[in-house]
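Chains adopt folds. We examine one example:
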Amino acid sequence: MTVTALVSAKSAGVTTSALAMTLSSTRPSLLAECDPAGGTLRAGFFQAQITAGTGLYHLAVAERAGEDALARAFADHLVRLDASGNRQVLPGLTDPAQAPALERSWPALAQVMRVLSDEGGYDVVIDAGRLALESGRLHSTLTPAPLLHGADLVLLVVRATDQSLALARHMTEPLRNELTDRGTGPDALGVLLIEDGPRRAHEVSEALRLPVMAALPWEPDTAAYLAGTGSAPRKLNKSALLGAARTALGHLQAAASRRALHQQYPPTPAAPTPPALTAQPAPAALPAQAQATPQVAGVLQRLGQGRVDPRV
């Protein structure tokens, strides 16, 4: 399936959007709350029912014993969003001071996310929080850059207001450069538009010079429930926000599939006629896809234990 990372220039509804997408997925789904500034789901949506003994920080501790230890611990630090375990959450940090401990763990976590998507059929949504820059590059501690590098799509979450666009505009070029140099390519970058404001999708796209890959309506009651500041609205399953999030996931899956095909079968440019008697070098071999270690792949078996039915 798809690994999608959500980021923002400032608070723009990243966590709420990520949770809506995870809850609305028609496939097994995982929300990884990886904001180095700290997670909000624990105190918000879960109403402090999850202790600090579960979550992202403990994976960084496990990784000190090796990547296989992190993989073994991964399933133990997930929280179910439904009885079957089809939808799960990795709760984030309880203290931003824990962020430096994660810097060396991000690459291993990125591999786990890749395995869940490619081999497990999960929709993986990464809440990467607010972007932080240092000398025009992603900050190595305050942004989980390796998770963005490994994602199929990286969506800059913006509201449909001039203020939100003004803040986001300064982040587009560093993000584009980062994905060009270290990620899966600049075409992985797009916009998730929160329709809270007067600007239309085409105006947002023109202002940021990025495609609007998905849009979510502004539905205050459902958003408040997901943020933990309001009660569940009546007929939650028929919420416009969750319905749009389900549609958005379908669009994103299609976009990621198109990108994968283009990368696998790039257009072949017309070759110029070589000079006579000039030896032509052999074509370079395409890099083989990195294979997951058995320990990381074993995460899938542990996640599958106790699942009643993988269908929704």
Residues 277-290, 306-312 have pLDDT under 50 and may be disordered. The beta strands are 3-8, 29-33, 79-80, 87-90, 123-130, 133-134, 137-138, 153-159, 189-195, 212-217.
